[in-house]
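Honest question from a wet-lab person: if I give you the sequences of every part of a complex, can you actually get the arrangement of the whole thing, not just the pieces? Trying it with mine:
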Amino acid sequence: MTTSTATHSTGYRIRSGLRSVLNYLVMTLLAFFFIFPIWFMLVSSVKTNELQITADMSKLSAFIPYGELGLDNYYEVFAQMEFGRLMFNSTFIMLATVLLGLLINSMIAYALARLDYTGRGVVLGVVVALIIVPFEAIAIPLLMLVNNLPWFGGATTWLDSYHVQIIPFIADAFSIFLFYQFFINIPKELEEAALVDGASKLRIYWSIILPLSKPIFATVAILQALANWNRFMWPLMVTRGVDYRPLTVGMQTFFGQDPRIWGDLLAFASMITIPVLIIFLIFQKWFVQSVASTGIKG
Amino acid sequence: MTKTVQTSGSAIRRSETITAWLFSSPAIILLLVFLAIPFLMAIYLSFTDQRLIPNPNLPTQVVGLRNFIRLVDDEAFLRGILNNFYFVLVVVPIQTALALFLAILINQKIKGVNTYRTVYFAPVVTSMVVVAVIWTFLYNPAGMINSFIRVLSFGTLGPYNWLQDTKLVFPAIMLLSVWQGVGFQMIIYLAGLQEIPSDMYEAAEVDGANKWHQFINITWPLLRNTTIFVVITTTILAFRLFDQVKVMTNGGPQNASMTTIVYVIEQGWGQLKVGYASAISVVFFIIVLVISLLQRRVLREERVVD
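Yes, you can. This is the full assembly:
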């Protein structure tokens, strides 16, 4: 390359211009690939004429909101099943699991990272080993176990309850590992000053470690919230009716009913997706950082 | 305060041990009861004929290796395992390559790149059950996917009955799985790309290396660990395949889309054969374990080489 880079030739400029256009073209085509099913869902869900939805489904008009539009499909979902109940169940189970998980997993990670105690090595080894046990490998024995566990008030089984969907998922080995990795990198001097002042470990954890650890709490919260919101196999097995069922299982039941009314189905699907998409758009940076942080293990 | 000074070192350590166990015990108890014990149960139950609701007249018996011997002749199980390997063979290379390509695209310092990142990532936050419902509609014989194929092939191909055709149903599930999952790996690759110092590219540019050479000589070798991580996690996820299959086909038609985990749940929950399902779970776990150990080993070798 003998041509100086400061004075680009016209040929170079045309070539780089073309490359830029091509670049955007490829990126936009890929964007269409990733967005078209979601857009298709949202548009079809507001088309109130079922015949129009099925007539449009093979044409570009499937992506254009036109014709009879409205929220009728959404009202019908509410009329056909207790959608509000499902939404409450999903939200409650997700919040309870995530919040209790943040507390319990961060506490053990703090002990592992900062306290010098008998048995520490064993506990750390067990936690790291448990990361590779996939839930699917234990689902059936766990089902048998919870089927025979007692609960307050004389119940002899955990099936069909909130706690059966919350308690088994509070402690999470990978979350502990993420917290642990973060805590060991916090400078020790910050705590030593407090120790000299006679502060207890609990106090140090609460007033020094926690405020410094907002990023890792956000990371674990997002990963766990997504996992719990989308959980499907377990609630499918342990819930019987609408009382304790989350949205995912409700969606599958609704989908299994004949005849399939696509307008209603896609309205249901939209209502599960829209809140998550909105939260994702607001906290996008955090989502991306959370996912990126899962790549640093090993 | 003077008390603290007087207490001996061992007393401090003892009190620290008590505090530490107080901090650790809630998580340890939960992990033991809901992960370690079911795991040990799976191993034990795989040697029994345990049923979810035991028949009082037929007590559960230890049957030795009978469950595992049966697995060898169980066509649905073998189909499930084979399908998982088929899935790995097709999806892992495609998804890894696409994730890297997308990551390179959104790592460019150009206008609007964040919007593209948002769009590519959006399917990741969409629930798999929802994804399965939407794509079932798209795969309708009179639906959008067949239209695309008709237009792209100038009317020569299709229409196909994607979810009813034993040859097409699994590739159809693969496509939507890539669509939903690739954004996750894209972000992991993006994090890897951002760790590569930009002056390495500047130096290469001065030496006259074009973009392709830069990719082959800088990007690809420096992303080696990221690639290993992405390949291994995608492989493990492929063996865990469940949600989309359960919603769309339940393993059918004729077991064409059966997977190991769909079969575990069908046997253990559907047919209440806990012993048999546990045997399949054990096989599944061994596969996942081997893959995970392989990853740790490959990564450790890398460190030694460095």
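Two things worth pointing out. The CA atoms of residues 200 and 218 of chain B lie 8 Å apart. Chain B touches chain A through 96 residues (CB under 8 Å).
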